[in-house]
Specification:
Elements lengths: L11 E7 L2 E7 L1 H4 L3 H19 L10 H5 L6 H12 L2 H17 L6
Antiparallel strand pairs: 1-2
The structure holds zinc ion (ZN).
Zinc ion binds next to helix 1.
Length: about 110
């Protein structure tokens, strides 16, 4: 049986509340210890990322407010503001463009 949250084999079962309904869920060892909110957010990320990649958007890693809130006691809006500021910072943008150049160079793709 496959883990409800990933492609691993399920080895453990527990009861989790999802959308107000509690049901038995089969998990792998690595997903078992994670919170339901985290697992649902991760699954949403995967669905949304694949939909955007079909349209040519490449997100790499998608950040979520839970990435901030796992370390800081803040509201959803504060977490969104923190993530937005971090992801659009000059240093991040510059690093991404440098990495695009580096990867294209590595693949011997000529610059326009
Ligand atoms: Zn799993």
């Amino acid at each position: 049986m496959e883990c409800k949250w990933c492609k691993n084999d399920a080895t453990i079962s527990d009861y989790r509340e999802i959308d107000g309904i509690t049901s038995k869920v089969h998990s792998c060892e690595s997903c078992f210890g994670l919170s339901t909110d985290f697992l649902l957010a991760r699954r949403d990320k995967e669905v949304l990322t694949s939909k955007l990649e079909i349209k040519g958007f490449v997100l790499g890693d998608v950040w979520h407010i839970s990435d901030v809130q796992q370390n800081y006691d803040c509201t959803d809006d504060e977490a969104k503001d923190i993530l937005n500021a971090a992801l659009t910072s000059d240093v991040v943008m510059q690093t991404i463009f440098e990495q695009i150049d580096s990867q294209a160079d590595h693949l011997k793709i000529k610059k326009k």
